[in-house]
Amino acid sequence: MDRGLYIAASGMLAEQVRQDQIANDLANATTAGYKADRTAQATFGQLLLNNSVTGAAVGSQSTAVQVTSVVTDFTPQPLKDTGEPLDFAINGDGFFAVQTAAGTRYTRNGQFNADANGRLVTLTGDPVLGRNGRPLAVGADGKVDPRALNVVNLRDPRKQGDNLVAGTPAGQATGQARAGALEGSGADPTQAMVDMIASTRAFESGQKVIQTIDETLGKAATTVGSLN
Amino acid sequence: MLEGLRTAAAGMAAQQQRLDGVANDLANANTNGYKRVRVGFADLLYERGGRPTTSDAAQLGTGARTIDGGRSFEQGNLRDTGVPTDVALEGPGFIRIKLPDGRDALTRDGDLQIDANRRLVTSTGATVSPTITLPAGVDASQLAINRDGTVLAAGRAVGRIAIVNVRSPQSLQSVGDNAFVTTARSGNAAAAPGTILRQGALEASNTDMAQAMTDMIEVQRAYQMTSKAIQTADQMMEIANGVKR
Questions:
Q1: What distance in Å separates the CA atoms of residue A36 and residue B160, rounded to the nearest whole number?
Q2: Does A196 contact B92 at a Cβ distance shorter than 8 Å?
Q3: Cis peptide leading into residue B130 (ω within 30°)
């Protein structure tokens, strides 16, 4: 069958993935320390076309489009003052280190609490680590010195959900922790709206291509193949 | 097919819950000793590829949820009332009370009264714990309450209002009537020596009206824009259905 059908369909599927990614950005438009994603596409397998009579090369054609990766933009975002003593934000690069059941994880969402043992924990209850790699204690005044928090650089950071990021630590970061503030979400709702429109239209174009190819095939079946 | 529908719906549900929190803060803008709620957000799990045209290196988020951040125990403004049975706490901590159902609880609402049995009670009928009974013949105007909580009736000490705090006030459970009860996560109540009582004053709610209004606008816009993602997903399904005419 005409390979254009499959190419157009793969393009439509890629736009669906992009739409899902935009929906996630919008859903997290107010999540502190959230980092926005970008969907990257690439052609999937090149095919060399030959003239079937002479055998001369015509050129290459891609067979489909594939979503190769969703890239996260870890650019620091503006900080918002909250006045809460246990809200922290990183001014600049870096991540807070958190001790979870699955090992050390990292986050830029510094909305923390104290637990029953007086340790600084995330809202999901995981202890936040200090510069010495041990959980931090909340002082008697209900505060923690932001300089005591460990702010580390990460190689290959990868989002894991629950505000956590996995990655390989690569030394102290240049960013400074600050108390009484939270980092804004990296999702840009205006950009998301524009991307959503562009994506829908690209999806629609894919539909038109399929319809056109279908019409051509229809002609081949009814007009060309007609016996009268 | 179009997980984005559910992703967006999760985001909308999270915004709705945050709005409930803001609404509660606004409704309690004039409640003595009220502490505003603290709502946190988190992204949901990420799923990998899983489709023929998506590489495994690509991971897709599935929305957002709210997390309970407890309350913000920022000090509320003190308001002078001149009423001798009114007390306000300055600094972190709570007054220990016993709820009418017998449970121990904590409150920052110092709008105290003298009940028919001459005991010091809160405005909702919970007794100050340990119970402080005023001797007969002493009226409210002869009452003096010291900074450390000692209650003097006509110059004679009759008891002490317990000022206590817990390790994690954000993990206290709110039981309504301005009262909180301790939980396993909050730790037990222990004396809070640095906190003082001020007689003749009340602590106002710490709801910040301007902040609540801004939050409300932010919630509404985020809700609206996330709903557009649902509309778009719907539109795309319509287009997909239109492939076969």
A1: 55
A2: no
A3: yes
Residue A151 has pLDDT above 60, yes or no: yes
Residue A3: Cβ within 10 Å count? 13
DSSP for A163-216 reads TEEEEEEEEE-S-EEEESEEEPP---HHHHHHHHHHHHHHHHHHHHHHHHHHHH
Confidence (pTM):
0.87
Q: For chain B, what percent of residues have pLDDT higher than 90? A: 78
Q: Where are the domains of chain B?
A: 2-72+207-244, 78-203
Query: Is A70 within 8 Å of B236 when comparing Cβ atoms?
Result: no
Task: Write out the H or E segment, with its range, that includes residue B234.
Answer: helix B209-241
pLDDT at B21 over 80: yes
Token pair for A222: 């009814």
Pairing verdict, β A87-91 and A176-179: antiparallel
How many CB pairs (< 8 A) connect A and B?
219
Residue type, A222: T
Mutation target vs A (from B19, B35, B232; most A CBs, 10 A cutoff):
B232
Distance CA A164, CA A52 (A): 55
With CA atoms as reference, report the closest residue to A17 among B226, B52, B10, B14: B52
CA-based nearest residue to B76, from B125, B42, B118, B25: B25
B191-to-A23, A77, B90, B108, B166 alpha-carbon distances in Å: 49, 41, 14, 15, 9
**ipTM confidence:** 0.85
Q: Give the integer Cα–Cα distance in Å for A85 and A143.
A: 6
Beta bridge partners of B130: none
